[in-house]
Amino acid sequence: MSERVKFRFDLFDPDIAQILKDCSYISLPFVLSGVNDEVNRLLTGCGEVFFDRNTKDLIQCRNDLKIVLDITWEKLNTGHWKDVNINWRYVYTLASLFKVLCLLSAKDVDRKDIIKICDMGLLMGAPLMKNILSKIASKVSSMILLEENQDWISQAKKLKFSPASEDVQLKYVIKEEKNLSQEEFLKKYLEKSCPVIFTDSIGHWPALSSKPWR
Fold first, then answer.
1. What is the DSSP secondary structure assignment for residue 38, as one 8-state letter?
2. Domain range spanning residue 179?
3. pLDDT digits (tens, 9 = 90+) for 159-179
4. Is the whole model's pTM more than 0.70, yes or no?
5. Are residues 199 and 123 in the same domain?
6. Gap between the Cα atoms of 90 and 42, Å rounded
7. How confident is the model at residue 69 (pLDDT cuts 50, 70, 90)?
8. Are strands 3-4 and 27-28 parallel, antiparallel or unpaired?
9. Each residue of 88-127: b (16+ CB within 10 Å) or e?
10. How do residues 74-121 score in pLDDT, each as one tens digit?
11. Does residue 195 share a domain with residue 90?
């Protein structure tokens, strides 16, 4: 018989714990019809890690989840997708959720791995707990973006810019030319790759006078 046990919100960052509030509605043990007893047992044991009656550590939990996900992957990819028992998709979602919870409760974890697991759970599983995997992925993405922005700001503050030297020597003296012809420009500047400043070169444009366009 399923029973309600208390979810351990204390294992997680407060912002993540807020998203996980729907996990409190999980009932254990899992008895999903059409799913073999071994998978139900392993999934239940992994779920218990995050409830008051924890019976295994995170390492064992992750090992068991790998077994569950491998078995479920085979079930989901055997035969036509529409003929697969929907409970196997729920198993994949729950296993993905518990795998994500293992990572979220650990330290020094690459958060991008969490997003990948959520994506696979959303792709192969079925929505549960108000699409909790989508909520977690969205929150973790925001956390990654915030960290990257903070790192960028921190690096920018460390940069030191030295004032321009007063002894800078120019390779070329940039000349100013008035009414320079195309031939002169080609020979004196373009072919020699020398810079030049044109002055009074567009005074004949109708747009700069009161004369109408023709």
1. H
2. 175-208
3. 655 555 556 566 667 888 887
4. no
5. no
6. 14
7. very high
8. antiparallel
9. bbbbbbbbbbbbbbbbbbeeeeeeeebbebbebbbebbbe
10. 999 988 888 899 999 999 999 999 999 999 988 778 889 999 999 999
11. no
Q: In the chain, how many domains are there?
A: 2
| Residue where one domain finishes, among candidates 143, 160, 191 | 143
Side-chain-side CA neighbours of 170 within 13 Å: the count stands at 6
CA atoms of 180 and 177, how far apart (whole Å):
6
Q: Is 54 exposed, middle or buried (0-12, 13-18, 19+ CB in 10 A)?
A: middle
On whether the CB atoms of residues 141 and 112 are closer than 8 A, the answer is: no
70: which 2 tokens? 């491998």
Residue 202, φ and ψ in degrees, nearest 5: -125, 20
The pLDDT tens digits for 128-147 are 998 999 999 999 999 888 88
Q: Are 33 and 87 in contact (CB under 8 A)?
A: yes
Q: Supply angle C-alpha 10, 127, 62, rounded to 5.
A: 50
The DSSP letter of residue 7 is B
